[in-house]
Amino acid sequence: MRHRLSGRKLGRTTAHREMLLRNLATSLIEKERVRTTVAKAKELRPFVEKLITMGKTGTLAARRRALAVLMKEDAVTRLFETVAPRFSERAGGYTRIVKLSPRKGDGAEMAVIELVGSEFKAKEKKKKDKEKGKKPAKA
Predict the structure, then answer these.
(1) What pTM was computed for the model?
(2) Contact 111/37 with Cβ under 8 angstroms?
(3) 136 lies in some domain
């Protein structure tokens, strides 16, 4: 029985699950948005929020603890220098989960987990100049 046991197993062993969360957290901090399944996103949220709170303290000990969790030194630097200061006035709720349409292959529920404040900005399509786009008319 699973009385009072929190968290999802995600169909993986403990070591595999921990590495999955570490990799997802590293990618989220580097890219500020990750597309994954809803279950993984819901497991990743508290994991990343604890890292960001750790980054807000800014101590050397916190940096070393973050380095033990995250996979890349660049991600730790980004966490402490850009991500955590951005949330200095915010007391939690650093991430957002947006559900997407199911995955085509197996129908798994998909979601985007992103850091608050890094909303998607659509790239503007380049408009072709009408003069350059038209072919000269034959006379």
Answers:
(1) 0.82
(2) yes
(3) no
